[in-house]
Amino acid sequence: MNGSDFKIGEHYRYRGQRFQVLDVRQDTVQLRATEGQRVVLRQTVDILVRAMKRGDLVKTQEAALIADPQKILAGLPKRYLLDFDRRLHYVQGLMARFHGHMPKDRASLEISELAKRINDISIPSFSTARRWIKAFCTSGLMPTALIPHKRQKSKHRLERQPREVQQLILQQMDALYLKPEPACKTEVIDAIILALRELNDNRPSHDRLKVPSPSTLNRIILEHDAYERTLAQKGSKYAQRQHGWTRKRPRPARLFALVEADTQQMHVLVVDEEGQVIGRPYLTAFLEVSTRMPIAWTIGFNPPSLDTTLKALKLSMSSDNPFGGVAERYVFDSGAEFIGDNLRRIIGMLGGEVCYCEPGTGNQKPHIEAFFGVWSKEIAHMLPGTTFSNIAARGDYNSEDHACLTLKALDDIFSRWVKEVYCERIHSSLNTSPRMAWEAAQNPMFPPRRHSLSELHHHFLRAFTASAQQGRLRHKSLFWTGPAVAYLANREPKAEKLVVFYDPSDLGKAWASHPSYPEELMELQPVDPDYQEGLTLHLHQETVKRLRAHRQSFDSGRARAARVEILRDLAYLKTTAKRRKYYQTKEHGSLEHPKKFRLPRPNRPQKPDNYRFHGKTPGDDAPVEV
C-alpha cells in the first residue's frame, strides 16, 4: 500500500477508537477521532499498513461519493467547463443519431454538421469523437466521463517539488518555524533559498535544482497543517483548545447517574477579623449532572488535597443534606486532591465508581467547569478584593487594598447565589431550572441513597492510639481533650492507650473509645480551636514543615503565623509580577535571614552562638518525632 490507497473521508477503527482520514500527503496520513476523546494522529503509511496486517486498523466506512454530476461540474475551472460543454454537444448529437454505433462516413458528416451549429473551428476527428462515445457508454452514460483529463490531480505545492527540494524545505521549517520560538516566514523563506543555492553550488551546472520563488515558498508554508504548526509552536494544550471539536453529551436519564467535581481557587482576596489580608480561598464543589444541581461545596483556605475532597464528598452523601445522595459515577480530574486510594475505596464501598479525566481535557467535565465560570463572571469579579481572571482585566485595580470580605461573608454570598439565583433560573440545556428539574426527577420508589453522619464516620475517619496525659490525647503535635478522656482512662479494665478517631478534613473534631468497648464513641474538643477547627491534615503537615525549616518548635501561635505565611505564598508568589518582585528583592540582599534563622550547610554543620544545649538534646542529624 502507499499513501494514495488512503482516501480523504474514509473511516477506520484504530486502537479501539474510530478515526476519519482528513489529510494525506507524501508518506503520512492524518487521522482525527470522530468519537470520544479529541485525538489527532499523523502516522506513516508503513505503520498503518503493519497495523492493518495485525488487524488493529480496520476500514469501517468508505469515502463519501458525490452521485450528482452537477456538484462535480460546478467545481471545474471555466476553461475546463467550456471544453466539457463542447464534448457533450458532440456526444449528445452522435448518440441521438446513431445510438452508440459509429459508421465512419455518416458519423464524419454528422460531426461536421454539429460543428457548424456551435461555430467550432477546431472540428474533432472521427477517432476522437469515437473515443468520447466509448468513454460515455462504458461509464454508464455518466456525463462526468467527458471531463477533460488535462486537469491534474490536486496536490500540495510541496509535493510538486523535486524530492531533494522537499527534504530541504522540511528541514528548514523544522529548524526555524516548527518550534516554540518560531522565526518569521520571511526569514524562513530566505533560509530555504540560501540553502538551495548552496546546494546548487556543489552540483554540476546541468544538474542544478530549480529554486522556488518566494511566493511559492510562502504558499508552501501556508499549506502546512494548522494543527501540527500550532502543536509545535504552542504545545498540545493550546492546540487541543484551538482545534478541538465537541459533541453534545446525552443528558443522564436518572438522578445521580453522574456527578462531576472539581476544585478552583476563587478570584477574591479575603481578610481575617482584624482586616489583614490572608489570601484567596479554595472552592470544592460537587454537581449532579442530570439536574445541574450543586449538591455540596466547601470554601476554605486549605490548599487542594485529598482531605478537602473527602470533606465535600461527605457533605454530598449526608442525610442532613436535602440534595445529597450517592452517585453511580463520579468524574474527577487528575489533580492530587482527587487521586488517592482512600477516595476510590470510600466511593467503591458506598456503591459508586470513580472516573478520571485526562490532563488538560476540561471538556470531559464541562458542567462543573461552566458552573465555576458563571460564578466568577457574575459575582466574583464584582466583589471587593477581586483578582479578576487575568492581569489585563485587572488594570490598575489593587485587589489587596480593596479586600474587606471575611471567609464567612464570602461563604454566605456564595450560598445565597447558589440557592436564590443559580438554582432558580431557567437553564437553556434543561429548559427549566435546576430546582424544578430536581423535583421532577424525584421517584418515591427509588429515592437517593443517603447516609447519616454516624454511618459515614466509619468510612471517612482515621484512627490512632494514644495515652491520656493531663486529660489530653496527642497526635502529630495536636491535642484533643474533654471529660471523656479521664473517664475512659480510668474505666475498667484499664487500658494503657485509648483509640482515637479523627477526621483528616477537619482536625477540630475527634472521638475516643475504650479498647474493650469499641462501639461507644465519645466526642472530644480541640485544645486550640482557633488553629484546629477547619484545618485539614494536609495543611497542618505543611505548617509543621515550615516550622522545622525555621528551626522552631511547634506552638499554636507560631503555627497560626506559619499557616498564614503559607496561604500568602500560595496566593501571591504564583503570579509573574510577584515572582519578579521576589527575585528583585532577593538580588538586593533584602531576603537574607537573621543569623539565628539561617540553616546550617549540609557539609559544614554549624550551631547558633550563645545557645545553651541540654545534655540530652539530639544532634542535627537525629530524627525528630512530631
UniProtKB/TrEMBL annotation:
It comes from the Bacteria. It comes from Pseudomonas pudica. Residues 248-442 form the Integrase catalytic domain. InterPro entries: Integrase_cat-core, RNaseH-like_sf, RNaseH_sf. This is DDE-type integrase/transposase/recombinase. Coiled coil: none annotated. Residues 584-594 have a biased composition (Basic and acidic residues). Residues 584-626 are annotated as: Disordered.
